[in-house]
Amino acid sequence: MGFWRVVAGKATGELEAALSRVARLGAEHASMLDSCARCMAAHAWVGGGAPKFDQMLAVRRASLQAAFTAAAQEIAQRIRQLGGQAHVPSFSTSISVMAPSPGAFSGMDIAAMTRMVADLQRAGQDLPRAGQRLSAELSALCLSSPSGQQILDTGVWADEQARDLRQRLTTIQQTHDIGTASKATAAFGLFGGHAPGSGEIGKLMTAAGKGDGTALKTLKDLQDTGKDTTLAARLNVWWRELDKTAQAQLIAASPGLIGALNGLPATARDQANRKYLAEQKATIPQELARLRAAWTELKETQKKLAGGSNAIRDPRGLSNLPTLKERELLQSIEELELRSRQITSVEKSLALGGQNGRPPAMLLQLELGGLGKTAVSFGNPDEADNLAVYVPGTGTVLDGFGNQRSDAERAALTWDRASFHAPGKKVASIAWLGYEAPQWGTTVSLNGTVANANAATKGAPLLASFTDGLQAAHKGASDVRLSVLGHSYGSTVVGLAAQQRFGKFADQVIFVGSPGVGAGSAKDLGVDSVWVGESPNDPVGDLGSLFLAPVRSSDGLKWGSPLGVDPSDSQFGARQFPVQGSGNSYDFAAHSSYWDPNSASLENIGHLIDGQYNRLYKPPASPVRPPSPTAPPPAPQAMPTENPLPHPLPSPNPAGG
């Protein structure tokens, strides 16, 4: 018996040494295609043959990492069979969702493509050797595995792609040596597909580039349908190919439309929207003064017609009813007064930038009138490493957007905490009111009530199109983390938008105080990372637990509210991040407390945006009865850091407490 123990011990030692060598080999080579994936995610090549190449790259990259994992698992299994213990390292890496979408157009960053070709060539040289070394290791252990051949095949594929792409790039460099735009245009023919000057949308862009306002308006209307997933990327290529003079002329002539086009650089949109804001601010007071003078003149005329006295024979009081002209004047005056308040609100929102260490705010969208629409960014989204989009919910209107503790401030506070927790990263935090949120007390209009998902259904394509634009305009070459946060009814908009861009919407979604996200389970959203935060005494957050309507899901038919099932329910499948709560009774104030300064929820939102899942704060457990007002609140506690990806955490109190 002792002899066999010695033999087993020696064999285990040899296997452990082999596992260590395979682990080092995997650590050196499993990520060799990551730089190429990042290059594609940064839109170095879009449209034409790009989607097909991107799909092949994803398959080869997954195969490469799976091969090293499978080889290590086989060795580890043999160690365990001999009574030893073995840990299999993970060779899987993640790449941002910012990836190219299929389309009938092409665009290319020549310098970035040149770097990608060099990386492919390096992989083509190193991976075959790594595959041979792995095969030798496994063969020496009498293990039969295809892993070595998989790695070798991936290397051969990388070398073939490098040769093909380098030849085409060389042709471009030799025949078009007059600037990036010309080389990019030449790349249309050389890399498959065709330039954006083809098809109906191509004709519209050509006309828009010449200053056709109707064409610009049509493009904006098409964008708002959210049906064309490639439109934002096409508009990005179109804008970059215009010369500076043409761009300036378009901004001067149609600032409101240019500022509304998703896919254009954030700096261009900010410039256009600020120009539109300034123009409206200058003209509205003049028009208001004219209308008020007309109102005064109308009333004086009426007095004269009445003989200078209101005491005319009118026993039924009909003369006191407003005339059609009066109603029209009143409506026009009220509309302009509303727009004036909306301008003031936007200016308050923009003023939150450039203070407390924040970057200047950027105005990415502006539509005055009605409920109003806007998007304000703290930080440049085109250059951000960690990018967050906050979508507000019921009751949100533009003229209240910039008020204290309102939506713009929430985005600013989000920037504060995300930047504080990740000082080496560039952060951009956007407050997006690009849809008409339902209003409290509205029950007559089926599209404006919180009682159904109609407003979210109309808002979802607008949000999907907006995130298309963020992805198309982003110019970073490294991993970018795109998080979309939905509060209250805004979470329903986010959930429906994610399903419209399944697998391409965002890197993570964060639902806060959600009544339902239009889905039956987290996997219905097509987003890798889904988080939910809900105060235990937030009544809105528990609406999804009411069995009022059927909800279709990939898991089968479920029951929830008209807005979906409760995403904080453990069966939904989302991770839960801790938030503060007190008492065991519902309190509507809890629904608006998630962005309170120094709150656990705000700190955790910042950590989530930075991907710091191991640093989430867990507030103290909420007592059954409210604590004494004289007792100081305990300081927030840091969650354990052993596991970088913790399991879902329950709310401090059960939902509905």
Explain what the structure shows.
The protein is of the alpha/beta class. The protein has 18 helices and 14 strands. The protein has helices at residues 2-29, 34-41, 50-81, 110-140, 147-175, 180-190, 199-209, 213-225, 231-241, 244-253, 255-258, 266-305, 324-351, 407-421, 454-473, 489-500, 588-591, 600-609; strands spanning 45-47, 106-108, 361-367, 373-378, 386-391, 427-433, 481-487, 508-512, 529-533, 549-551, 558-560, 575-576, 617-618, 637-638. It has an eight-stranded mixed beta sheet with strand order 3-4-6-5-7-8-9-12. Strands 1-2 form a two-stranded antiparallel sheet. Strands 10-11 form a two-stranded antiparallel ribbon. The longest helix has 40 residues, at 266-305. It is globular and about 125 Å long. Mean pLDDT is 82; it is low at 99-105, 176-198, 314-318 and 623-657.
Briefly say what this structure is.
The protein has 657 residues and is of the alpha/beta class. Helices cover 48% and strands 9% of the residues.
What is the CA-CA span between the terminal residues?
61 Å
Number of strands: 14
Class inferred from helices and paired strands: alpha/beta
Give the integer mean of the pLDDT values: 82
Parts with pLDDT < 50 across at least 5 consecutive residues: 99-105, 176-198, 314-318, 623-657
Strand residue content? 5-15%
- Oligomeric state of the chains in view: single chain
Our Rg estimate from Cα atoms comes to 30 Å
Percent of residues in helices comes to 40-55%
